[in-house]
Specification:
The protein is mainly β. The protein has 13 helices and 47 strands.
């Protein structure tokens, strides 16, 4: 027994559900990253930063499904932990690996384990970073003169006179010439007038740790600050600040009793000037909707004293030179908001604590121990708003003696004073948890290792908010209650058997259906220990195969809607019928019991006392090992999981008269989906001379399928059943109509008036009409995971110099160019893409449909707008130099490292420009950082 335990201590331990396991004994469906070691060559802020490049099967989702995030065993936000606080991350992919967490982890789990103290002298580590964010690029929009010219063309295409809604040639010419930018505005949101070339972020972290046999301690204190790109108005002061403190202590109270305590405090503040600048960049035309945001006081008629009175009484004279511009349809605008409306300060405070006890009960039964723990998390957020009503003005322009002059001002709104801040928004979140478990670990005759665990786990998260800004609070909290049992056996670390299960409870389900058992079984075989492998395949160092079957009950997907899908989604009491006479659902009758009209109670849904859990039934097979004296290590999993019993309203089961005047359909367990895939991770470690290098490649082939869905499609090929979950439906484009004769001789399209230059769609069902029944499955959009996802990590070390790089990519999915940048209609802003528009002169080379302000025929998902989302991103490159320790022998400094780093550097894709360009939001950026870490 002693030998077995000594070996386990030598192995690296991996945090899994409610316990640690020697890495050599993992039975598949689990991947781990030693973050503390990774930080020596890879600095990052976010705790889950670039995990796809290091862990197979993870894309932000796990095997295509959203995981539960746990920090030190408690459901918490990953954003509450910085990477410098993290010791390790474990990704639990297989159902057998997450079953002990009950229902809420049924789609996978990510365990973030923070750093703790160890037996060593007092150590202080200080890390400082500062860097610049550089925009990758901005959308390209037409200038004001070109916009007005092409808008006139769109009106003409639609048969609408330009003399009314359009622009005169005189206005266009004066705008192009830049005669008077206040009378003929041409606003470029992305110019240096409004934006900086870069903005910066800096952070500072101090870690203090140490301890002895009695107590070990760890403390992490961090500061982070960044500003923003915008430099106009109040938004030039935009910034974010965060202060983090994390501390823990581990104590040996007695030989048989130990305890640990953790506490975390996080305070953040955000300052932002009012005005939706980035939203306006994609919606406000360059002529600023026919008015100037600023009115020059110098151009007011000096002979009109009323105008000077307006100036003298205004509260907002911008730079001593301008009044704020507006018009009846736009009495306020984004720039006047930024200049005069005020600001919002958002502050959040978070406090987290854990308390754990462990007792060695070996005096009662050898190998028996008991652990218990509790936690309490509090998080609050509120905003302090300062808002100021203001007046804007529309000028009347005249030309006097060849000079532009403003002869009148029409006012909209009113200048008001305010000296008070007010609470604009407030939210509060509380999470409580409790766990207790008995563990048994015993090795018999040095060959037979038996482990068992019996546990109970409970947690509750309650969200509260003010009703005006967050819609109020749900009465029901997020709740998980379950008991768990696990028994494992291995013989000489060669043959493994694991049985794990959970008794889960859900208040979402009807009485009598609220409890269920989730069983799993896993088998493992270290085949490399067999004689026939040792004698014949000497290049195999270690190789283990494993497989599992699981049937996990979950209530995560017990969710639906009430009142004919007009209400908010609800998770509770879907099994219970109800009636309503509200405006949302109740029926209105002109007569009602001698009353002249009124609302009548109607059924909202019927009872279903047999509503039950949704099941994740999974088969998984995997292997892991190392080859050629640890030159290559590999792990892989094939998984096939079926989600059965997803909720539906029974369109295909109940007759049509069950709904209409009232709804008598119950929610039932009906839907069924399937996820299958293969993930892998391969690592190569080698040395050539003084150069050490390692190359890691992760990947996942993934597909999903709708096995059964509650639907009644008009045509069989429109059914989602049998298709991928992420199937993207659309029309097949046959190019652009070139003439009216071609339109007359083609199937009739029903999406508005069709003219030459519009997109021509294929008549899929051959009925002579193009409508929604002509959509087909065009491919997968990869919203959960692309058909193939992969990551790459590279380390090259020479003497004291290390080069580290990360990359990730995906292939096989499609997207549509359907943002406002491509789908330009009405009077919206025109991007440069419209320069390839169809006209009679360009009909043979056009790359864009005709311009229009009315037709919606062209703006539908179709192969015309489709593109492949294949891409590879170089996420990070970092160069680190570690100074030799001999330099500090006579110094209080024990070590020093400096590094330079670039993040989000390159995207390799046929559609690179599209993928690197944000529309209506802040731009994507590259980040260039310089940092240093010193140990004392």
């Amino acid at each position: 027994m002693a030998g077995a335990h000594a070996q386990e201590k030598q192995d690296s331990l991996v945090n899994v559900a409610f316990r640690t396991v020697a890495k050599d004994d993992l039975l598949g469906g689990v991947s781990t990253v030693n973050v503390a070691e990774l930080l020596k060559k890879n600095y990052a802020v976010g705790s889950l930063d670039n995990l796809q490049s290091l862990v197979s099967g993870y894309t932000g989702n796990i095997w295509g499904q959203a995981p539960l995030i746990l920090v030190d065993g408690i459901p918490r936000r990953a954003t509450d932990v910085r990477m410098v606080e993290v010791q390790s991350i474990t990704v639990l992919k297989g159902a057998s690996a997450v079953v002990l967490y009950g229902s809420t982890a049924a789609k996978g789990a990510v365990l973030i384990t923070t750093k703790r103290g160890s037996i060593k002298p007092l150590t202080i580590d200080v890390r400082a970073n500062t860097g610049l964010f550089v925009p990758k690029g901005y959308p390209k929009y037409l200038n004001s003169a070109d916009y007005m010219t092409l808008y006139n063309e769109a009106l003409t295409n639609d048969g609408i006179p330009t003399s009314g809604a359009g622009y005169s040639q005189d206005v266009i010419n004066n705008t192009r010439a830049g005669t008077n930018p206040y009378r003929y505005p041409d606003v470029d949101f992305f110019s240096s007038e409004y934006l900086k070339k870069t903005y910066f972020r800096s952070d500072l972290t101090t870690e203090v740790s140490g301890g002895n046999d009695v107590a070990r301690y760890y403390t992490n204190i961090g500061l982070t600050y960044n500003n923003s790109l915008v430099k106009y108005g109040e938004q030039k002061n935009n910034n974010d600040f965060a202060f983090n403190v994390r501390g823990n202590v581990d104590m040996n109270i007695a030989k048989w009793l130990s305890a640990s305590a953790d506490a975390v405090a996080i305070s953040t503040s955000n300052y932002v000037g009012r005005g939706n600048f980035w939203g306006a960049t994609s919606t406000v035309a360059p002529n600023f909707n026919r008015f100037s945001p600023l009115i020059p006081i110098s151009m007011l008629d000096p002979n009109n004293p009323a105008l000077q009175t307006i100036v003298n009484n205004s509260n907002h004279i911008i730079d001593g030179k301008f009044l704020l511009g507006g018009q009846s349809t736009n009495p306020t605008n984004v720039f006047s908001d930024m200049l005069a409306a005020g600001y919002i300060k958002t502050k959040s405070s978070t406090f987290l604590y854990n308390l754990n006890l462990k007792a060695d009960l070996g005096s009662i039964l050898k190998g028996l121990s008991f652990k218990t723990g509790t936690s309490m998390d509090y998080s609050s957020l509120y905003s302090e708003g300062y808002t100021l009503p203001y007046a804007t003005y529309r000028p009347t322009w005249s030309t006097v003696n060849g000079q532009d002059i403003i002869t009148a001002l029409e006012r909209f709104g009113e200048d008001k004073n305010s000296t008070n801040e007010f609470v604009g928004r407030s939210t509060y979140t509380q999470t409580m948890s409790f766990k207790s478990q008995f563990d048994y670990d015993r090795t018999f005759a040095q060959d037979h290792q038996v482990k068992a665990t019996v546990l109970g786990w409970w947690y509750k998260t309650q969200f509260s908010s003010d009703i005006d800004n967050e819609g109020g609070s749900d009465y029901q909290p997020i709740l998980n209650t379950n008991l768990g049992f696990q028994a494992t056996y291995n013989f000489r670390k060669k043959y493994y058997v694991d049985f794990s299960g959970a008794l889960v409870h859900s208040a979402k389900l009807p009485p009598g259906k609220r409890d269920a058992i989730s069983p799993t079984v896993t088998l493992g075989w270290r085949i490399s220990e067999e004689k026939f492998v040792k004698d014949n395949l000497s290049f195999i160092d270690n190789f283990k195969i494993n497989g599992s079957y699981a049937s996990v009950n979950q209530d995560l997907d017990v969710t639906g809607y009430r009142a004919n899908n007009t209400a908010e989604p609800v998770d509770y009491y879907l099994y219970q019928g109800y009636y309503s006479n509200t405006a949302t659902f109740g029926g209105w009758y002109q007569w009602r019991d001698n009353v002249a009209g009124g609302r009548t109670t109607l059924s909202g849904q019927a009872d279903n006392r047999d509503l039950t859990f949704i099941k994740r039934n999974e088969f998984r097979f995997g292997f892991d090992g190392s080859l050629f004296k640890n030159l290559i290590s590999v792990e892989a999993n094939y998984f096939s999981q079926t989600t059965d019993g997803l909720l539906a309203r029974g369109l295909t089961i109940y007759p049509s008269y069950f709904s209409g005047s009232g709804d008598f359909r119950p929610w039932i367990n009906f839907g069924k989906e399937k996820h299958t895939g293969f993930d892998f991770a391969v690592n190569l470690n080698n040395k050539i001379g003084q150069v050490h290098y390692s190359l890691g490649v992760t990947g996942m082939f993934y597909k999903s399928n709708v096995v059964r869905r509650d639907e009644t499609p008009e045509q069989d090929y429109l059914a989602r059943t049998g298709k991928p979950l992420d199937a993207y439906f659309g029309f097949i484009s046959e190019g652009l109509f070139q003439s009216q004769a071609e339109i007359d001789n083609s199937p009739r399209q029903t999406f508005g008036a069709v003219k030459p230059g519009d997109i021509k769609y294929k008549d899929v069902n051959g009925d002579g009409t193009i409508d929604n029944r002509d959509q087909v499955d065009l491919g997968r959009n990869g919203w959960a995971a692309a058909p193939f996802n992969y990551g790459v990590n590279l380390t090259v070390k020479w003497k004291n110099l290390s080069l580290f790089a990360l990359g990730a990519g995906n292939t096989g999915a499609i997207g549509f160019k359907n943002s406002s940048y491509y789908w330009v209609g009405g009077s919206t802003k025109y991007s440069e893409i419209v320069q390839g528009r169809w006209t009679e002169a360009t009909k043979n080379s056009a790359t864009y449909p005709r311009l229009t302000t009315t037709s919606n025929n062209n703006f539908r998902n179709s192969t015309y707008w489709m593109y492949k989302t294949n891409r590879f991103d170089v996420r990070r490159v970092q160069l680190t130099y570690d100074f030799k320790s001999e330099m500090f022998l006579k110094s209080f400094v024990h070590g020093l490292s400096v590094y330079v780093q670039g993040d989000n550097l390159f995207v390799f894709s046929k559609e690179r420009e599209l993928m690197e360009t944000n529309i209506g939001t802040a731009p994507q950026t590259r980040f260039f950082n310089i940092g240093a870490k010193a140990s004392f």
